[in-house]
Amino acid sequence: MMEKLKITEINRLSEEAFKAAEKIPLVMVLDNVRSLHNVGAVFRTADAFLLQGIYLCGICSTPPNAELHKTALGAEFTVDWKYTADTLDAVRELKAAGYTVLAVEQAKGSTLLADLQADPAGKYALVMGNEVKGVAQEVIDACDNCIEIPQYGTKHSLNVSVTAGIVMYELSEKLRKKP
């Protein structure tokens, strides 16, 4: 019989242990994501997969914020973050620091997420776009590539936090596979 784990059996890291833990070389970049719930969910998922951090750009809200905290559940205190007014500045900064920057967007010539060949020794940044407009074209132009999640139904869009969760999980698993 399966029995649900108690909170004491999950082996959660303390804030101090999380801060000291080796992170996956993966950064999320939120390009004008307006919903505080989406931003909070990205923080929470970034914490779950031990990501290096998050860039909050443009109209993204930043901690401290009570609405953001509702979905982040404290991950805004564990995950490193930085605010940048212009997403292009964040992309340029990450590329200069040796990151491969990938926009998560449906675009001509994009790579399907499952087909992405990630170098476990590399550093990556994923750019997530605005809930209505997606990733700005000028930001896509500055990125190294676009990746997309194949979709088979009538709706060809996913909520930004759902998409972020899928790509964070998939890419972090690829990066954990050390040669």
Write out key terms for the chains shown.
179 residues; alpha/beta; seven-stranded parallel sheet; 7 strands; 20% strand; Alpha/beta knot; 35% helix
Topology (SSEs and partners):
Blueprint: H1 15-20, E1 24-31, H2 36-48, E2 51-57, H3 66-72, H4 75-78, E3 81-84, H5 87-96, E4 100-104, E5 111-112, E6 124-128, H6 137-142, E7 145-148, H7 160-176
Helix pairs in contact: 2-3, 2-7
* DSSP summary, beta strand count: 7
CATH topology: Alpha/beta knot
Indicate the CATH architecture.
3-Layer(aba) Sandwich
- Specify the CATH class: Alpha Beta
- Total of DSSP H or I helical runs spanning 4+ residues: 7
Structural class: alpha/beta
* Cα-atom radius of gyration: 16 Å
Helices and strands, in N-to-C order?
A: HEHEHHEHEEEHEH
Spatially, the strands of the biggest sheet line up as: 3-2-1-6-4-7-5
Low-confidence stretches: none
Would you kindly provide a written description of the structure presented here, covering whatever features stand out?
This protein is of the alpha/beta class and 179 residues long. It has one domain (21-149, 170-176): 3-Layer(aba) Sandwich (Alpha/beta knot). The chain is built from seven helices and seven strands; from the N terminus they run H-E-H-E-H-H-E-H-E-E-E-H-E-H. It has helices at 15-20, 36-48, 66-72, 75-78, 87-96, 137-142, 160-176; strands at residues 24-31, 51-57, 81-84, 100-104, 111-112, 124-128, 145-148.
Q: Can you give me a brief rundown of this structure?
A:
This protein has 179 residues and is of the alpha/beta class. The chain has helices spanning 15-20, 36-48, 66-72, 75-78, 87-96, 137-142, 160-176, and strands at 24-31, 51-57, 81-84, 100-104, 111-112, 124-128, 145-148.
